[in-house]
Amino acid sequence: MIKKLKRRLIFLFICVTMSIFTCVFGLLLDNSISSSQANGMIFFGREASYILFQLEESQTMERDLENLEDSSEFLFQLTDANGGLLYQSESLRQDPGPSAVLSEELKKTDVIDLDDSKVVQSGTFSFSVPAGESYYAVQARIKTNAYSFYTLDIFKKVPSYFEMLGEDAPFYLLIWFLVLAAVSLLAILLIGRAVSPAERAVKSQKEFIAAASHELKSPLAVILALSESIESDLSLPPETRRQARTIDSECIRMSKLIQDMLLLSSVDANSWKLKKSRVDIDTLLIHVFEKYEPLCRQKGQHFFFDMSDDIFPEIDADADRLEQILGILIDNASHYSPENSEVRLWAAMDAHHVVFSVIDNGPGIADEDKPFIYDRFFCADKSRTERDHFGLGLCIAKELAKMHGGTIRLSDTPGGGCTFAVVLPLNR
Length: 428
Known about the structure:
Layout: H1 2-55, H2 61-70, E1 74-80, E2 85-88, H3 90-94, H4 97-107, E3 119-121, E4 125-128, E5 134-143, E6 149-158, H5 161-167, H6 169-232, H7 238-268, E7 277-279, H8 281-298, E8 302-307, E9 315-317, H9 319-336, E10 342-349, E11 353-360, H10 393-403, E12 407-412, E13 418-425
Parallel strand pairs: 8-10
Antiparallel strand pairs: 1-2, 1-6, 3-5, 4-5, 5-6, 7-9, 10-11, 11-13, 12-13
Helix pairs in contact: 1-6, 6-7, 8-9, 9-10
C-alpha cells in the first residue's frame, strides 16, 4: 500500500511540476518566436536597403539581380519606367500572388516620387497570399547614372510559426527531457524521504503481526488440545464440558484468524509462492460444489452450479488457492443470504479469460461501502457484533486472484444481492 502511494505521489509530483514548467516554457518560447518574427521584418528592411545600395551603380541590373537571388532568399521583380517587365524570379512567375497583394498594399499609400534621389524605398509590408504563405515586401524606384528609371519589388518568404519552432525543436526537446529527468530524480528523492517514516512504521507493524501470529499458534494448539480433553471427559459436570466446547470453538475461530493473518503477512513480504500446475476447471468446480452444497443445505439455502456450453481448457494455476478464493466468496454469499434463498456458482469464458461468478440474493452491499470491501478488517457492521467473519476474506481472495494475474469484480445482482466475478487469464 505504501509503495503504491509512493508511486502515485511521485507521478503526481512529476505531472504537476512538468505541467507548470511546460506552460512557462511554452509561453517563453511563444514570446521568443513572436519577437523573432517582429525582428525579422526590421532586418528585412535593412537587407533591402543594402541591396538597393549595391544596385545604385549597377550597369547590368538583371544579371546582378539573378546573382543576388542565387545567393540569398530574396525574390525580385524589375520593371522599366513604362511598366515593362525586365526581370522576374521563377517563383513569382509561377505564383503572381505576392506581386498582386503588394500592388494592392501600395495603392493604400502615397505614390513614391524620386525627386533628386537615386533610390526611393517604400515602407516594409508584411502580408499573406491566398495560398497561405506569408511574405515581407518592399518596393523601390531606382534612377541610374544613365538616367534610366526602374521599379524594383523585393520579396522574402516569412517562415511560419511552426517552421521556426521546428528549426530548434531538437534543442527544445532536449531541454524538456533534461528537466524531466531532473524533476523525476528530485521527486524520487523528496517523496522517498517523506514517506520513509511511514514505510518503516508499516514494515514494523507487518513484522509484529507476523511474529505475533507465529507465537500464538503454539499456545492455541495447547489450549485446543486441553479443551478437547476436558470435553471428552464424561466424569465432569455437563456445564464444565459445555464451557470446554465454547473454548474449543473460540480457539478454532482464533486459529482461523491467525492463519489468515499469516497468509497476508506472507503476501506482504512477497514470500508466498503459488504451487501451480495444470488445473482442470470442470474438476475444480465440481469439487467446490460438492464441498459447499451440504453447508448451504444445512442453512436451508439452495446452492446451484451452472456452466456455459464452452469447453473449458486447463489453466496454469494453484488449485488449492483457486478453491480458497471460491470458498471465501461462497461462504460470504451463504452467510449473508437468508433461508430459502439461492446461491449460484457460474462459470464462463471468452477468448482470453475464464470467469467464475458467485451470485447471491442477500441484502447486498451499500454503495458507500463498496470502495472499502477489500480493505483488511473492514466490516459493514460497524458495531462488529459479527463473530464468524473478521473482514479478511475478500482481501485474501483479491490478493490470491492478483497472484494468478487476475482480478475480482463486484456488481449488484438484479433483484438484490451481490455478484462477485473472479476473472483469470487462460494462459493458452
